[in-house]
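Please annotate this fold before class:
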Amino acid sequence: MQNLHDFVVHQPDVSVLFPVQHSTAVERGARSSLTDVAIKNAKPREKSYRLYDTGGLYLELFPNGSKLWRWKYRFEGREKRLALGKYPEVGLKDARESRDDARKLLRTGVDPSAIKQRLGAAEQVEATSTFEAVANDWFERMMRDKAESHRVKVKARLEKDLLPWLGNKPVADITPRDILACLRRIEDRGAHDTAHRALQNCSAVLRHAVVEGKAKENPAVHLKGALPPARAGHFAAITEPKEVGPLLRTMEAVSATFPVKCALRLLPYLFCRPGELRTMRWSDVHLEEAEWRFVASKNGPSHIVPLPRQAVAILRELRPLTGRGEFVFPGRDDRTQPMSNATLNRALQRAGISTRDEQTGHGFRAMARTILHEGLGFSPYVIEHQLAHRVPDVLGGAYNRTRFLEDRKKMMQQWADYLDRLRDGVEPNVAAEPRLRIGPREGR
């Protein structure tokens, strides 16, 4: 950013043509020059007063203790004053240098006050042209109609992955290398999908800068192909048993409403899709039969989730609070609607769990699939049917809601008991866990 001194050094010295005209004895140096000691010892009075230096420079002291530098000069026959800053931020030496710079401008026939106004206006333009300023404007204009869950994710990427390093840079000065450095930091923590999304958001902000006339080009376009392909459909998930216990204990301690805490407790037990859980209806819950029957949101078939004892207990405890409504987990502001699709991931984030790199609500499905099969030895056919996945077999059947139902009931209870032991810090005896090794021809 330019200042008065930067402007002055580019001006020709024509002091011979424009000599300084002083109108008072003070400006002619009749008074002695100021000292640092005199300034420090000067105390505020009931009314403002001035301490004069030489060449029209003076320090004005106010009753509230403020001390402001001024320079008095004449331009085109009119007496004017130029503010030079606040003491002690601007010391005596700096004030004199600013006065001398202003006098050089005056000798060229330029009004120093006009130059300062121009520099101030340029500074304001520059302040609105930083990446952070443009990003905020883009977010308010272009994201206002997006789903709240999407807005939250985009805002988080901007604030955590881009603004700390690009925020103060003018958008016109940002280079592809600046952007790539941000993306490499994201990649270094293993969040490859986040790196791709951050690049998309950064590019959108810089396109907005071009449209608004604050940049000539979008440097993000030069990074096409700079990142390795991200894994499609990846949801962060913990799949190591030793890490599950600490995760569950952290989730237990989260600060949230009782319905949200209940939803967080159910999600690992049932490993359903978060969208299915948040839209759970009391009419679909059959506590006496320990079953939850509903239409799976993704594939459409009717689905049965056997409820382990722990899940039944949670739902019985919650029913007095939300049982009069349609939804087991109603919205906070509108109880006729289900809770927001961002609620569970936000609760995980409040607990200090990264939903980008550690665990998402959807990631409990990957956790269960991996540990049930690889760790506990359950049949993939039973697991996939519990996940409501279409898994064609040699008989041609894609999905049947009652298939392996008895085995799934046993598996769900064993899974809930296994999670409880991990949560409580009890080492599970994996060798003693019964296996359900069911092949493709053994459907029930």
